[in-house]
Task: structure prediction
Amino acid sequence: MTRRFSGIKPSGEMHLGNYAGAVQRWVDLQDDSIYCVVDLHAMTVPYEPAALQADSRRLAMLLMAAGLDPQRCVLFVQSQVPVVAELTWILNCVATVGELRRMTQFKDKDSGQESVSAGLLDYPVLMAADILLYGTEEVPVGEDQIQHVELTRDLAIRFNHRFGDTLVVPKATVPPVGARIKDLQDPTAKMSKSVDSPQGTILVLDEPARITKKIKAAVTDSDTTVRFDTENKPGISNLLSLLAAATGRPIPDLEAEYATGGYGTFKAAVAEAVVDYLAPLREQFSLLENEPGEVTRLLAEGAAKADAIAQKTITRVRAATGLLARS
Ligand code: TYM
Result:
């Protein structure tokens, strides 16, 4: 079986881009896979400690509600397997400052800031450590993370070249639709939890009426034809991607069905499909909210399973890099 690993940051709520671009596929491909709430990554920008704890638990619950079954996959919170920090340090001595500075996500977050944490620059090395610690072959992500997975590949290849064949070289996989969901108010920017655009972002736990309102208010264009054309019709194309992700239907079929019916009818169909798509998740989440003890237990079990895999890798890495064995 193929070993998969992926992660999601507990900064703010899970949004529809996370769900359609990544989490949906994690649920479909969960056997022999490892999924992680990356709380250490959330510390790279200013945050509230109490909120981070609550958000990490909440996100883990959302992943369970979305369908990740801790009996079938390993689901854990990153910092509960602290050996990842050790591998990050070792990989820091393989990565170069130049390649980290070239990461587009670093450039986006760094620009206009007076001072950013060293952790923000180092973010992709921590991500590489996540992936490499677990012998990952495939990393299911949305398009925005491809560059980070490419860097992980480079680091693994460089490490193996320098220290002998030790790390599995992974590759990124993206979904056929939904890999790049855009902001509803600015369809040239990706839907994101950190951007200050509450009307442009659908949170997976938004009430149905709120989802419908946001989709009906989505920015489109002055034309009247429903057609997939990201260059000239970014808003309509984004809604088509959402409808395709929510229904599992191919975009050409949807274009044929909605081409001439008007934007109002089309938006109503998108809203209904997205509400239906998220309904099971909302229901499951409210059940889990009544079982906080069970969630804590499942996360502890997940961390123990992840740690067992991680220890094997770090033992090999320590030996290969010339560190003394731990007695
Ligand atoms: P994060 O938390 O920003 O996003 C989690 C996943 O959601 C995808 N995604 C999107 N997909 C489509 N459209 C969008 N608008 C959209 N926004 C987000 C992301 O591509 C991602 O797959 N650095 C990672 C977390 C991470 C990780 C890892 C991922 C840490 N370690 C190891 C994979 C492997 C991040 O910030 O994801």
Observations:
- The chain has a mean pLDDT of 95.
- Residues 5-9, 17-18, 21-22, 38, 41, 127, 130-131, 139, 141-142, 144-145, 148, 179-181, 190-192 surround tryptophanyl-5'AMP (CB under 6 Å).
- The chain has 13 helices and five strands.
